[in-house]
Amino acid sequence: MTLAVSADPPDCAGPVSTPPVSAAPALIEEKYRRLLAILAERGSGAVAFSGGVDSSFLCHAAAAALGKRAVAVTIVSPMLPKSEIDDAAALAGRLGIEHILVEEPEIDEEVAENPKNRCYFCKKKEFRRIFQEARERGLAAVFDGSNQDDLTDYRPGLQALAELGVLSPLREAGLTKAEIRELSRRFDLPTWNKPAFACLASRIPYGERIDGAKLSRIEGAEIALRSFGFRQFRVRSHGDMARIEVAPEERSRFFDTALMDAVSRALKSRGFVYAALELEGYTTGSMNRVLERGGINEEAGGPS
After folding, report:
1. Is 200-292 CATH 3.30.300?
2. pTM (predicted TM-score)
3. Which of 26, 53, 94, 149 has the most Cβ atoms closer than 10 angstroms to its Cβ?
4. What fold characterizes domain 25-186?
5. Above 80 in pLDDT, residue 297?
């Protein structure tokens, strides 16, 4: 099977830096065929769908392999910005896959305490709900969008998926993030160059309590940064201070003092008292550095 390459990839608000694809085109195609076979073997399934690069591509593949026997399930919680929910709904309509929205307005106490394994508790709750939706529809499996690269980072949520029996077809097929982006581009998916995203709770240091007000403040601050044209960014919340991370190639924009003033005003209008710039720029999982330095109490999950 040869994959068609779109001559004009869809505009997704500008390019995003992605790592080079290491595999040869033939190997990528082989991995895609393997992915379709893995999905088809299950017969039916529910895809945990956040609207990000990986879950969007998995929805595309599930629709191709399973047709109407595949559904997409999005957990609507304070952890997920409304913009991501809207993107997910639009893409599901484009793919022609049934889209189920599951409302989870409350933050569980185990998650709110924000221990270093917060994602374990969060994933356990979310995927139990997705399994419930799958059972009610007689679907055979639940799929998530974890890829091969996720094995190299601190991902406590993977343990929850394993315990529940969630399947990770992208990882099973050996697909990396760069390969998923490349395949998404070939299939003309608008998410092919979408910036990396993680839930809003990842902006809050381990051990600092999570609540709806903090998540809303972070969401508002990130909406403001997006309005200034930034592409890849995070607003990390440290009490009253917003620590801004933008892609390394976007940092030079802050040499413009008028822009600095405007960003500062925008973030402070959202409830922050201070606004600071992370000098090295955005890096995935930067909040995990405290774990590497032993800065989290093992029992309480809070700062030592």
Report:
1. yes
2. 0.84
3. 53
4. Rossmann fold (3.40.50)
5. no
Query: How sure is the predictor about 289, in pLDDT bands with cuts at 50, 70 and 90?
Result: confident
Calculate mean pLDDT across residues 99-108. 96
**Counting every residue, how long is the chain?**
304
Q: Measuring CA to CA, how many Å separate 143 from each of 3, 80, 162, 169, 218?
A: 23, 19, 11, 7, 29
CA distances for 67 relative to 60, 131, 188, 254, 255, angstroms: 10, 19, 19, 47, 51
What are the tens digits of pLDDT across the range 79-100? 999 999 999 999 999 999 999 9
CB atoms within 10 A of CB 139: 22
Amino acid at 160: A
User: What values do phi and psi take at 240, rounded to 5?
Assistant: -85, 0
Residues of the chain with CATH 3.30.300: 200-292
Would strands 241-246 and 233-238 be described as parallel, antiparallel, or unpaired? Answer: antiparallel
Where in the chain are all domains bearing CATH 3.40.50.620?
25-186
